[in-house]
Amino acid sequence: MHPTVRLLDSTAGFPGFWRRSLDEFKRWSTAAIKLKALDEPKNSFLMWDFSNQESVTACVEMSDQDIGGYSEVNFNHVRSTSKEPGHVHFFGKISNQLPDDDRSVDKTGYAAWRSKDRPSSLLGKALWDVERHRYLAMHVKSDGRKYKVNLQTESIERTDIHQHRLYSKSPGTWEIVLIRWEDFVRTNHGQIVEPQSEMLREKVRTIGVGLTDRLAGPFDLRISKIWATNSLTPLQTALSGLQHPEYVPRESRELRKGELAKQETQ
């Protein structure tokens, strides 16, 4: 039996089936040899790298246009230059205008993107295991709007989304933002789920960013890389030549839930 061209070729920005299987086997073999379960990893774990066009193709963009709204969303790859790294440019314009021909829609004004479900390999579904890392790190250039980081896992409720604000301390400049994994809030269809349950960090399925504050006007967010880490120092294994990351101070779960609930009622 010979592998077909379809199995060898990449599709939708992902490597071919046999390549994915080999990469997954290498990852698990390395973990077993080094007995990683017995100690805390010192290196960062790169989750998404927007330095190439394929990484953008492997994501999907969304907006209220899906329900007849008028918000505009763009999700474009930007090549690296001497002044900035290769990245994705997530930008557009939020509109609160309701569709004229569908009275069942009473809310619009949102835009988002997320990574697609990664194709399976011989070892099963391709999921991120970040259980032994403390933080989610993102290299971003934000306009300061209230973006939310969205995570999906292999939970019982497939529509559950774990969310956290993407806080920018230096809008208009490149910065590294860190978020504790344990600080994400579980939601479903935009509503906070009670009781809260711990996120399945060993089975993270997708990652993305959304803007749902329904404030009309332009938005502009650039993202270079996304990774998991245990360090608050520059992560040379994922990035090079960057300043120290900006740490997001830990908030109480009740405060974060209150902020999300306030946005839902706006």
Describe this entry's structure for a reader.
By secondary structure, the protein is of the alpha+beta class. The chain is built from four helices and 14 strands. The strands form two sheets. Strands 1, 3, 4, 6, 9, 13 and 14 form a seven-stranded mixed beta sheet that branches. The radius of gyration is 19 Å and the shape is globular. Residues 1-9, 33-38 and 235-249 have low confidence and may be disordered.
The strand count comes to: 14
Would you identify the regions where 5 or more consecutive residues have pLDDT less than 50?
1-9, 33-38, 235-249
Instruction: Note the quaternary state here.
Output: single chain
**Which whole number gives the mean pLDDT?**
81
Question: Concise description?
Answer:
The chain is α+β, with helices and mostly antiparallel strands. Helix content is 15%, strand content 33%.
Which terms summarize this structure?
disordered N terminus; 7-stranded antiparallel sheet; about 270 residues; alpha+beta; 7-stranded mixed sheet
Per-chain topology:
Elements lengths: L4 H4 L8 H18 L10 E5 L3 H5 L1 E5 L8 E7 L8 E8 L16 E5 L19 E8 L4 E7 L6 E6 L8 E7 L4 E4 L2 E2 L11 E8 L5 E13 L16 E2 L5 H13 L1
Parallel strand pairs: 9-14
Antiparallel strand pairs: 1-13, 2-5, 3-4, 4-13, 5-12, 6-9, 6-13, 7-8, 7-12, 8-10, 10-11
